[in-house]
UniProtKB/TrEMBL annotation:
Top-level taxon of the source organism: Bacteria
InterPro entries according to UniProt: dCTP_Pyrophosphatase (IPR052555), DCTPP (IPR025984)
GO terms (BP aspect): nucleoside triphosphate catabolic process
Protein name: NTP pyrophosphatase, house-cleaning of non-canonical NTPs
Molecular functions per Gene Ontology: nucleoside triphosphate diphosphatase activity
PANTHER family in the record: DCTP PYROPHOSPHATASE 1
Pfam families attached to this UniProt entry: MazG-like
The species this protein was found in: Mucilaginibacter pineti
Amino acid sequence: MVFNREFPFIKLSNKMSEIAELTKKLIQFRDERDWQQFHNSKDLALAVSIEAGELLELFLWKGNEDVSKEKLKDELADVLSYCLLLAEKHQLSITDIIQDKINKNADKYPAHKAKGNAKKYTEL
């Protein structure tokens, strides 16, 4: 893997779609255990929220830098895994929906108005 020079924490891959490969692995893991029966939309959404709560708990009463990197990685993986499974359940492309949201936010928060400003788009 090669690291992106502009964003060193982002690893570039030669695969066409690393996200699709990860989603396939998650589905295989789930199906080998016959857990698909439990993965309805409501429960997947609840799982995202619960895992996000566990992610938040890592930071409770601590400074930003006092969190175990291993625990952070585990909780981020849990949140992202359930997001991928929920998107797959609804046949949504993660890359498409994120790009769409970036475009919507660019319209709501034009850089010339929002730069350095934490106000909601309705207040800009």
